[in-house]
């Protein structure tokens, strides 16, 4: 017989669920509250309105603009392709403006030249005007009477000294780019093709959940149209990176969430042998709904990374119905409401402990963890309420006769545990567990780098660089990134191209050549592994300094390269009380994998006393003479000098 509580609980929960669904509909009615902006996940302080506005203006070209070069062997055909693409993209409704030809606002340009004619005047002309105004005036008079002296955008009566004309003539020439007078297009010639510049600006930004994918699809379609005609498109935009990031997030959600879902459904069917037990997945769906609504309500939006990481909630939320479904092995016949009453204290305690664990993350300064904490806690509450209030009513008429293999498997595992405890004492097992955990902690490394959250596709970077092969900043940064990821051949290629683009007198050429040499050395070592090296050192303290140090002062013993980075190649730390001491420095003591003894031919040994515990500065120091990094004889370093 159904009690009053059993009748009212499902109805009350359905009212709550209807309210949550209505709130979710209101949150999504105008636009998607999902966000893909990684900067929202990092700690920071709230800026004032002026700073925020300035940042938005600076980021707008990256987040809303796309630059495309349309190339073709025939110059006129390249112009026609660019014109066609511009018309199609403008008609798509995705872009606020698509520009392929010069559309100069001459009145505004004249005003700008007049207002800034002193500031924009070339240095040579400014010097002539100040130092020799007579000669300047004479040149101006000659220009006025010379019919072949060119033209100025600003009439002579508005600019008597002709400063704006000198500004026009002094503007730097931008490589091989030239304006096509017939069409107004900007055209560059490279690799036997004419390249027309096409610039577009979208109506929304790269953090829109739909726009980046639509722009990427439109670009792919344009490439498909241009290829049969012999055309080629090169594109660069933050929108393309955003589209790739969204695809990556979708794949991860599909694999993590989808894999967990399929596994749980399969387990439920194999264990309970009833299609109706798939209703146990209802708490998972409701939990995801509660978590999403709570995040949007508290933060105004929900980041896609919260969905990716919060998909682990599926495995926790499905535990609630499994607790009382598992009573079907001992309760004959099994009934949902009596089974719930037997497991309700455990379910409630599980909810409380899980929420405490998740909400502890909310107090961290990392917004990503705060969102995940709120999503998970609200999701668990929703799943708990569904499992307690609604699911028993849905399963009220279901009779479950579970398979016996899970029970037998569990019994076999218990028997193995009992046998293990009989052979090995609990303290020994605890020691083995602690040793296992200690080994994991020993190899634990931390990296404070947001780039680990998302990987930038190399193909997009290479395409953007192909559009401007001599852009020195990009070449330098790409070389550094390749070197850090041990792609030494790519680093050599980038830096070699950068070296060719730099002026002969550029001061950075020597450092760049050194980086190329280092990359080639590392490349050679990758193909022929170098034997790990070590140095044996005996460190002693001079007798005259024993009254000037404390036994607890730190002593840092390290090796550094004679020619190379200043960072230590291997380092160990002891105290003054340990002196004299014999230590061995090896590649295992390296602070970074690529900076070790085996990678450098000559090194110097240093021993430093630091009362503050800082390896870079101290009170007393001892140094060895330069020596080969493969020296086998023990070296002696005496700490005897002030550390200046």
TrEMBL record:
Keywords: Membrane, Transmembrane, Transmembrane helix. Residues 615-644 are annotated as: Disordered. This is Putative Membrane protein. Residues 626-638 have a biased composition (Polar residues). GO terms for cellular component: plasma membrane. The lineage of its organism: Bacteria, Pseudomonadati, Pseudomonadota, Gammaproteobacteria, Pseudomonadales. SUPFAM superfamilies: Multidrug efflux transporter AcrB transmembrane domain. Pfam families: Ig_CycH (PF23892). Residues 535-640 form the Cytochrome c-type biogenesis protein H Ig-like domain. The keyword Electron transport does not apply. The chain crosses the membrane at residues 12-29, 253-271, 278-299, 305-325, 346-366, 372-395, 427-445.
């Amino acid at each position: 017989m159904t009690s009053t509580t059993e009748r009212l609980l499902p109805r009350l929960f359905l009212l709550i669920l209807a309210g949550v669904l209505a709130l979710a509909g209101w949150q999504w009615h105008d636009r998607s509250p999902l966000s893909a902006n990684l900067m929202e996940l990092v700690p920071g302080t709230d800026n004032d309105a002026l700073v925020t506005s300035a940042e938005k203006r600076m980021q707008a070209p990256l987040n809303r603009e796309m630059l495309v070069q349309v190339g073709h062997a025939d110059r006129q055909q390249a112009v026609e392709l660019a014109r066609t693409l511009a018309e199609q993209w403008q008609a798509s409704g995705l872009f606020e403006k698509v520009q392929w030809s010069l559309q100069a606002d001459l009145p505004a340009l004249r005003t700008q030249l007049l207002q800034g004619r002193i500031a924009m005047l070339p240095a040579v002309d400014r010097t002539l005007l100040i130092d020799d105004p007579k000669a300047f005036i004479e040149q101006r008079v000659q220009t006025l009477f010379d019919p072949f002296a060119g033209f100025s955008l600003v009439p002579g009566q508005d600019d008597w000294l002709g400063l704006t004309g000198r500004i026009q003539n002094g503007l730097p020439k931008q490589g091989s780019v030239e304006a096509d007078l017939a069409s107004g297009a900007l055209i560059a010639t490279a690799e036997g093709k004419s390249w027309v510049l096409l610039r577009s600006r979208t109506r929304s930004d790269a953090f829109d959940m739909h726009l980046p994918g639509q722009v990427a699809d439109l670009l792919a379609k344009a490439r498909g149209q241009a290829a049969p005609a012999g055309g080629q498109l090169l594109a660069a935009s933050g929108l393309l990176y955003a589209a790739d990031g969204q695809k990556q997030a979708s794949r991860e959600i599909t694999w993590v969430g989808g894999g967990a879902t399929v596994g749980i459904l399969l387990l439920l069917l194999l264990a309970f042998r009833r299609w109706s037990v798939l209703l146990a997945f209802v708490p998972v769906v409701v939990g995801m709904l509660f978590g999403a609504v709570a995040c949007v309500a508290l933060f105004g939006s929900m980041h896609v990374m919260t969905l990716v990481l919060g998909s682990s909630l599926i495995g926790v939320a499905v535990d609630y119905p499994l607790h009382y479904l598992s009573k079907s092995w001992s309760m004959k016949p099994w009934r949902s409401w009596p089974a719930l009453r037997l497991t309700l204290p455990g379910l409630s305690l599980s909810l409380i402990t899980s929420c405490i664990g998740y909400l502890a993350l909310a107090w961290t300064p990392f917004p990503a963890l705060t969102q995940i904490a709120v999503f998970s806690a609200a999701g668990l509450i929703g799943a708990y309420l569904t499992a307690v209030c609604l699911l028993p009513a849905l399963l009220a008429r279901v009779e479950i006769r579970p398979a016996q293999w899970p029970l037998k498997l569990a019994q076999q595992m218990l028997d193995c545990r009992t046998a293990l405890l009989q052979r090995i004492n609990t303290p020994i097992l605890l020691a083995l567990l602690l040793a296992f955990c200690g080994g994991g902690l020993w190899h634990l490394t931390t990296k404070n780098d947001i780039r680990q959250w998302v990987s930038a596709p190399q193909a997009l970077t290479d395409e953007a660089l192909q559009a401007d092969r001599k852009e020195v900043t990009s070449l330098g940064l790409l070389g550094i990134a390749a070197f850090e990821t041990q792609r030494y051949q790519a680093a050599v290629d980038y830096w070699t191209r950068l070296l060719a683009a730099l002026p002969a007198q550029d001061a950075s050429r020597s450092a760049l050549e050194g980086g190329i040499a280092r990359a080639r050395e590392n490349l050679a070592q990758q193909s022929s592994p170098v034997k790990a090296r070590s140095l044996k050192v005996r460190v002693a303290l001079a007798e005259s300094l024993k009254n000037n140090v404390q036994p607890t002062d730190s002593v840092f013993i390290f090796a550094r390269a004679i020619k190379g980075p200043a960072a230590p190649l291997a380092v160990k730390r002891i105290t003054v009380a340990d002196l004299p001491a014999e230590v061995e420095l090896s590649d295992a003591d390296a602070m970074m994998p690529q900076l070790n003894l085996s990678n450098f031919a000559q090194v110097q040994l240093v021993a430093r006393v630091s009362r503050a515990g800082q390896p870079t500065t101290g009170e007393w120091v001892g140094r060895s003479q330069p020596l080969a990094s493969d020296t086998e004889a023990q070296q002696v370093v005496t700490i005897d000098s002030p550390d200046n």
